Fold this protein.
Amino acid sequence: MNSGRCYPVVRAGTAVAVAGCAVALYNRVTMPRLAASAAVVEPVTVCVPARDEAGRLPALLADLRVQTGVPDLRVLILDDASTDGTAAAAAAVIAGDDRFLVIRSEDEPDPGWTGKAAACQRLGELADTAALVFLDADVRLGPGAIAAAVHELRRREVALVAPWPAQVAGSAAEALVQPLLCWSWAAALPITAGNRSRRPSTAVACGQFLVFDTAAYRAIGGHRAVAASPTEDLDIARALRRSGRHTAVVAAGRLASTRMYSGAAELDAGYTRWLWSAYGGSRVAAAAVGAVAALAYWIPPLAAATGRGSVRRAGLLGYSAAVAGRLLTRTTETAAAPTRTDIVAALSHPAAVAAYAALTVRSHRAHRRGTLRWKQRALRAG
């Protein structure tokens, strides 16, 4: 590597990596977290859309049955035309608990709706409480999670609180890629400022766990506002902000976790389903973001490995900042010390960025060809 020619490029990449690490450190120190000791007195409705979730849903329902701090809890489960016995699996866990209701639907979503948005809309219309919680079937909850989340909603006086669950990895592919979800915002956006803002561009949300003020949710039309969106969670937060309301993201790693995808194949299919829509669905914007990521997270480690003198030192600094930033965002998410797997994944951050780039390309290609599918449903090109 030619030191004279490469040094400015390496220095620029390192500057981006160091800036990301600084933001990650700020968020690690200041990120708001759910308080496990909270309690609420108001009635709460929890909505769980479930399609082919017989293997995952029972554990969530078992967690919901032992929630504390919510004396008036109602849980609505929509079996969305499942073919694997989801409704029966749910009924077996509920065991006659009258706080739970399983609704079986054979209807396909109307044109212009994704399956999840349609299921959430139906559940939201059935809710009759002022606080409304949406959970994915793969979420696992500590006993005080629902009370803590609703308490945070009311304490902050916002329209939506998005508790961010810790992402659990059960394979090498998941350990490499899944922490990028948290890293993508926690190394780029100071969350205390983002939570105070009403700018849609600074909204952060995770659809696995969302807590709404029901009146605000219905004022924007509920999930009808994001009927066709492949990222309905982020877009509904943006819709609330465009309506003049506040939303907030909080770390929930002590009280909520999830294994979003099981294995490389499911991870591939999951990200391919929606990554095309990032950055407004623009391939140009996606390419620009990819170029900056390559500058910050490929060039410095390459310089560290092959450069000499000042080039190598700058590369080592940039690579170290990238690894540190990844570990900081991971511990922000989990509220725990990094594991050996976390450390290995952080050291492999350049490979994670490469995997993300490959998934983005694949998603855009599938979107152009109209071949996107999820859970045996074709996804309408938007």
